Amino acid sequence: KALGRANQQAGIWNKLSSVYLMDGQNKNAETTALEAMRLAPDQTAYILDYLRVIQNTKQADDFLAELQSAYERFPRSADIALALARGARRTAGRRRPRAEREPRNHR
């Protein structure tokens, strides 16, 4: 009901994402977090919440790419820089070998 009346409010989408995440509905959490970011792309709090969600839904390499992208958009955000450092440390052993990540172009 709340979304029906205020579906353009990023904060509501972000709260819904948190609820989905707590309930274990990771894909719904990701979708609603993306909507919050779409509505308020300059809010680092929503980006950080999205990053928390996707650490459960994305492969390690994809998660790191999202972290890097967030850092590139907000290089002065200490929270995002810290998330990138922690994410790199956490995923170090879970990354796929480069040969599996990037197909080579054979000419």
Helix and strand topology:
Blueprint: H1 2-5, H2 10-22, H3 26-39, H4 44-54, H5 60-73, H6 78-91, H7 98-101
Oligomer: single chain
Mean pLDDT: 86
Low-confidence stretches: none
Query: Which of globular, elongated, flat, extended, rod-shaped describes the shape?
Result: globular
Q: Major sheet: size, sense and barrel closure?
A: none
Which percent bin holds the helix content?
A: 55-70%
CA-atom Rg in angstroms: 16 Å
Q: What is the N-to-C succession of helices and strands?
A: HHHHHHH
What's the helix count? 7
- Which structural class do you get from the secondary structure elements? mainly alpha
Q: Could you tell me how far the N terminus lies from the C terminus, measured between alpha carbons in angstroms?
A: 56 Å
Strand content: under 5%
DSSP E strands, number:
0
